[in-house]
Structures are given as structure tokens and as C-alpha cells.
């Protein structure tokens, strides 16, 4: 008897197996690209940051798409990637230098112990703590310290992905609308959340961090704190942390000066830090209020802790983005359930629950 050529699976089984195959292949792809995931996420962030310029030059003024894309890639590499990498390298190298020679740190701690009359440190303990800090930072800062090849591949993938996101923008956006399992209104909410979070944590917060770090470094230099440039670099990264921020840098510097008997310099650092550096944050946020997203400080703080642990230093931006998306999806899920319930009961939908068309572009 000839073998039957009929498929052994029912249509429903074929559908379920197809979904399982897609999920399985997606998991394998994500696992394989796991160490390079930050490249694609970084490309997405740069796309959101640079897209207004791309639209203004290409869609409104009619400039050549390839030329504009090349200019934006050059700008992002020279103005964003290279300075960030230089800061990261400086931070890691200087902390490693402190780890190899803890005499300066021990001298400061001994003076504090003499002032307080309480011994709470040992050189071995301080050395171990500094070395652990170096190891933690080295694993979370994407720089040449983590390997030249890995660093080069990440930067190359990020720029290569960004190139195609701009040169094939229409197809990219059309694919998002077609394959993402969301309504048009939900896609608009997700897009607004992405734009607000990037504006708040990249454009706005980076500018605020740069101003605060510059003022911190200048203040420490004026009042005679050694390595003012290095501590200003540290202040740039700590400025992303809500509530704590730059006081993590100029606070200990003021204490150091006070314990050394330089009361005027210590009080000067405290006054400038507490009055100028701390309040410049609020002033800049008022000035940038129209261009920055409204991100709650608790979301930013929890997002920073979550993001740095998962994505490294880029988690300063990606962490709050993940939490913002989670909150948006919860809101969408709640609204979808409410719509289904009202539809099932035959109640008319509220104006906010009706589907709105997704704007083009």
C-alpha cells in the first residue's frame, strides 16, 4: 500500500507548531546576539535623537538621503560616541590607578578617623573594596577595556543598523506597524513614550549632567581638590542618578577639606555645591520642560538600577525606558480589557477608547 502523502497535523496543530518554531528561533537569535544587544538598542536611541534632523533635511528641504545619513553618522560618532568612550576609558583607568595605590585614600580615611576618634577602616579592606569597584565598572562600561574586537563590533553594528534605519526609513516604519501586535493607538502611545524617555534621559539629562559635571570639576579645581578633571568626569555619570547625583562627588570632597583643616575651602565647596550645582538642575529642567518628557524620579531611579545591571552604563537610558514601556503596556492592557468588557455588555465606547488612525511618518 503506498504511503499517504497527507500531513499528520491538523490546521490548528500546524498553527501552534509554527508559532513555537518562530519563538524558538527568536530565542536562539537573541541568545546569539545577547552580548551585542546594546548595539541595536543604542542604534534605536540614536535614531530617535537624530530623526528630527533627518526629517527636516530630507523630507522638508529635499536634501540627498545618503548624504544626510552619512553626516548624521559622522556627527554621532565624533560628538557622541568618541567623547563617551574617552570618559569611560578615563574613569576606568583612574580608578585602576587608585586600586593599585590606595595610600591617598588611606591618608584621607586616617584623617577622618583622627577627627572622629573612631577607627573603621583597614588598608586590606579598602584595597578589596576598590578592586571590586574596578571589576564592577569594567564589566559595565563598554570601552576598549572590555576588548578591542568586541568594542569595534558593537560600534560597527550600531552605526550599520542606524544607517539602514535612515536610508530605508519608510520600510522600517512600515514593518513596525505591520508586525508589532498593537493597535494604531497603542503604537502611538509607545512612540510617544519612547520619544519622551529619550528626550528626558538623553537630550535633557545628558545636558544637565554635562553642566553639573563641568561646574563640579571647576569648583573642585578652584578650591584645590586634586584630580578635579577626574572627579568632574565621575560627576557626569553620577548626575544621572536622581536625588543623589553630584553630591556623591563634591560632598566627600568638602568633607576631605574640612578634615584637613581647610575650613574655608570645605565650606566653599558645600556652599557652591548646595546652592549652585544642586539648583542648576531645577533651573535647567524648567528651561527644557517643553522638550523633555515627564518621567517620574522614582521610575528613573529604579530604571537606572535595573538598566545598569542588565545593559551596563547604557542602562542609565535603557533602564528608565524599559520601566516606562512596562507602565505604558499595563495602561494599554487595562484599557483593552475595559473595551472588551464594555463591548461584551453592549455599552457604547467612551471617546478615549475609540481607535484613532496612526499618523503617517
UniProtKB/TrEMBL annotation:
| Principal location listed in the UniProt entry | membrane
One Pfam match, given by its short name, reads AI-2E_transport
Give the residue spans that cross the bilayer.
17-50, 71-92, 144-166, 202-223, 229-256, 268-288, 300-333
| GO cellular component entries | membrane
Q: Which InterPro entries match?
A: AI-2E-like
The membrane topology noted for this protein in its Swiss-Prot or TrEMBL record is: Multi-pass membrane protein
Q: Which family does it belong to?
A: Belongs to the autoinducer-2 exporter (AI-2E) (TC 2.A.86) family.
Protein name (database record): AI-2E family transporter
Please give the organism.
Hymenobacter perfusus
Amino acid at each position: 500500500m503506498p504511503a499517504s502523502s497527507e500531513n499528520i497535523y491538523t490546521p490548528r496543530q500546524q498553527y501552534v507548531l509554527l508559532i513555537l518554531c518562530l519563538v524558538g528561533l527568536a530565542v536562539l537569535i537573541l541568545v546569539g546576539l545577547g552580548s551585542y544587544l546594546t548595539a541595536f538598542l543604542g542604534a534605536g536611541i540614536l535614531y530617535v535623537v537624530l530623526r528630527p534632523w533627518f526629517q527636516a533635511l530630507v523630507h522638508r528641504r529635499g536634501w540627498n538621503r545618503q548624504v544626510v545619513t552619512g553626516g548624521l553618522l559622522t556627527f554621532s560618532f565624533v560628538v557622541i560616541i568618541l567623547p563617551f568612550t574617552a570618559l569611560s576609558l578615563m574613569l576606568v583607568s583612574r580608578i585602576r590607578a587608585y586600586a593599585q595605590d590606595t595610600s591617598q585614600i588611606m591618608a584621607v580615611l586616617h584623617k577622618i578617623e583622627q577627627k572622629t576618634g573612631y577607627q573603621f577602616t583597614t588598608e586590606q579592606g579598602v584595597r578589596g573594596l576598590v578592586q571590586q569597584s574596578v571589576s564592577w565598572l569594567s564589566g559595565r562600561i563598554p570601552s576598549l577595556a572590555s576588548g578591542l574586537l568586541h568594542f569595534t563590533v558593537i560600534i560597527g553594528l550600531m552605526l550599520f543598523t542606524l544607517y539602514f534605519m535612515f536610508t530605508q526609513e519608510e520600510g522600517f516604519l512600515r514593518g513596525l506597524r505591520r508586525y508589532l501586535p498593537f493597535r494604531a493607538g497603542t503604537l502611538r502611545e509607545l512612540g510617544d513614550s519612547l520619544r519622551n524617555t529619550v528626550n528626558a534621559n538623553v537630550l535633557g539629562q545628558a545636558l544637565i549632567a554635562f553642566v553639573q559635571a563641568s561646574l563640579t570639576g571647576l569648583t573642585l579645581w578652584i578650591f584645590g581638590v586634586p584630580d578635579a578633571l577626574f572627579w568632574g568626569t565621575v560627576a557626569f555619570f553620577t548626575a544621572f542618578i536622581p536625588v543623589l547625583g553630584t553630591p556623591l562627588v563634591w560632598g566627600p570632597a568638602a568633607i576631605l577639606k574640612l578634615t584637613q583643616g581647610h575650613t574655608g575651602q570645605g565650606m566653599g565647596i558645600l556652599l557652591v555645591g548646595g546652592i549652585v550645582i544642586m539648583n542648576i538642575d531645577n533651573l535647567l529642567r524648567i528651561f527644557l520642560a517643553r522638550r523633555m518628557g515627564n518621567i517620574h524620579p522614582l521610575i528613573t531611579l529604579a530604571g537606572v538600577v535595573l538598566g545598569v545591571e542588565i545593559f551596563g552604563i547604557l542602562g542609565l537610558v535603557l533602564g528608565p525606558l524599559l520601566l516606562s514601556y512596562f507602565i505604558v503596556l499595563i495602561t494599554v492592557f487595562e484599557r483593552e480589557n475595559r473595551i472588551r468588557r464594555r463591548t461584551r455588555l453592549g455599552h457604547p465606547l467612551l471617546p478615549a477608547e475609540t481607535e484613532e488612525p496612526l499618523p503617517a511618518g
